[in-house]
Amino acid sequence: MGAEGTAPAAASKKQVAGVCLGNAIEFYDFVTYAYFAAQIGRTFFPTDTPGLSLLASLATFGVGFLTRPLGAILLGRFADRVGRKPAMLVSFGLMGFASLALPLIPSYAAIGVAAPVMVVLCRLIQGFAVGGEVGAATAFLMEAAPANRRGLYTSLQAMSADLSALTAGTIGLLLSTLMSDAMLDAWGWRIALLLGAAIIPIGLVLRRTLVETLHPEAAAEPVEIAVSYRRIAIAGVCLVAAATTTNYLLKYMTTYASATLGMTTQFAFGATVVVGLCGAICAPLAGSLSDRIGRKPVMLVPWIALALAVFPCFELLEQQRTATALYAACAILAICSTFASSVFFVVIAESLPQRVRSGALGLIYALAVSVFGGSAQFTVAWLTQLTGSPMTPAWYMIGGVVVGLIAMYSIPETAPVKRAARLPHGKEPVA
């Protein structure tokens, strides 16, 4: 909780929407790759060995996480020294370039090995951009919010990411309904990616209107913080790692439903719609509730519910393998996961001073996501093939849940409403 002697810049609803739209576009392009991993694998990594092209595609998806820490360090420090606005413009521009280039790359059949090489380069640029985006955008939303609404404002970032997942899933569902599997492999997935790239100019225009929330004179003031950076960093990495494990496995449900459960592509894409819709609704509700009753209760209760729901949900899927079972399991897991994880970022951001907030938060996020998010889908797909057990994702997810519970107990309560209750009468909590 850095002492920031200046009031945050007032951000209009249009400017907050601009940050959220930019974040949504960036994550739309990133998650769309995951949703169409099977089709992209057959386009750029053709093979006669069953499952190998999917593993190659998921490995390339994981490559995008390698450059996230670099983006967090370089763009995060840029945001802490120069400003949140220029950092977000740079990250958005890089994402726009890579997102437009990837669906225009010819197939392996057309240009040979140059095709997968260019795909990898685009994924590296995307990872760098997202790594720099998260810290700057989260810092902006927290700093632009009234003290008693930080949870709500910061949760809008999670909501925008979930809306992007919902949009990508809806587009995937429509395309899979209107197209044959051969058409999806040939060019259907390209349409999905190009639709996201088409609105990039709107995001750039909106971001150019942002106010600047970084105040160098305030950031240079002494830091008043009750816990050490080391404790915050460790707990933060664990929190984000736990959220990443559950979130990326939920995004993997499309591939899991089709490749492991043998469901149709249309039904499989319906799972992404359910996950995105639940996340988009629950994120702002969780953020707003955490402003009223505190961060820790909103994190702990649904996360414990998630721990209890993981195995029953996957057992239901294994036994029934129907669309109803798939959507019900996805809804339960997404509601529990999103309600808790939407509060993680505001807790970490409130625990850091302004002068290092963007860079530190971005690096915490990038390290956790690079290690756990980048490997989650590939590892689960590989372990499922190795063991032949459809319950593999459940075991992987429960490991992340346990790590998250430990981190939640160790991190301090940061909600202003809770901190104010602990102060002597008449004193205000430090921002």
From TrEMBL:
Compartments reported by the entry: Cell membrane
Give TM regions: 52-75, 87-111, 186-206, 232-250, 266-286, 298-317, 323-348, 360-382, 394-412
- Which Pfam families does the UniProt record give? Sugar_tr
Kindly give the InterPro entries that the UniProt entry links to this protein.
Answer: H+-coupled_symporters (IPR051084), MFS_dom (IPR020846), MFS_sugar_transport-like (IPR005828), MFS_trans_sf (IPR036259), Sugar_transporter_CS (IPR005829)
Q: Its principal location?
A: membrane
Looking at the record's lineage, which domain of life comes first?
Bacteria
Identify a single GO molecular function assigned to this protein.
Answer: symporter activity
What's its membrane topology?
Answer: Multi-pass membrane protein
Keywords of this protein's UniProt record, alphabetized?
Cell membrane, Membrane, Symport, Transmembrane, Transmembrane helix, Transport
One GO cellular component term, please give it: plasma membrane
Q: Major facilitator superfamily (MFS) profile domain spans which residues?
A: 15-415
What's the protein called, per UniProt? Answer: Major facilitator superfamily (MFS) profile domain-containing protein
Task: Say if the entry is tagged with keyword RNA-binding.
Answer: no
